[in-house]
Amino acid sequence: MRKISLLWGIVISLVLASPPLLALPAEDVEVIRNREYFPTLHRALQEARESIKVIMHSACYYEEYPDSPSNILIGDLIEAHRRGVKVEVILELGIWDEVNRNNREVGRLLSKEGVAVAFDSPAVTTHAKLITIDGDVSILGSTNWKYYSLDKNNEVSVLIKSREVATEIEKYFRKIWNSCP
């Protein structure tokens, strides 16, 4: 028993003394709470000039509520595409019928307007909610693009201004994109 404790002590000491495996520089980090998410993301999408990459677990378009925040964000992607921004979106397609139905509808709307859309493999759940903009800004967090997430729930995200972080996130995005059926 003493040998095991000594071994764990050595392992813990090495871990605590080691530098982080992946520490990337960031120009700025902003915590986005609850109702701050929509205006922050809306503004960032409108300012995009080169590229937008989105992975979203659950997105909804509400035909009966054209001015809903999720509809506006979906419209922002379409408008960015029309401005010449390269927009790519990955949506979950898995075991939840409601999520599948909503994501397929959002995917159809975006695709119809020329936005590149992929659905993940039904064999894996893509629960990520992330956006990169212009290879410089990343927004990561818990917020789905649907009514409760945007208007009611306690949600938190971070906006990170860092080319290095965006590069790592975009590598992750591309890995999933390339695995989509």
UniProtKB/TrEMBL annotation:
KW Iron (keyword) present: no
UniProt organism field: Aerophobetes bacterium
Official protein name in the record: phospholipase D
PROSITE patterns for the chain: PLD (PS50035)
Entry keyword annotation includes Signal: no
One GO biological process term: lipid catabolic process
Uppermost EC category: hydrolase
Catalyzed reactions: a 1,2-diacyl-sn-glycero-3-phosphocholine + H2O = a 1,2-diacyl-sn-glycero-3-phosphate + choline + H(+)
GO molecular function, one term: RNA endonuclease activity producing 5'-phosphomonoesters, hydrolytic mechanism
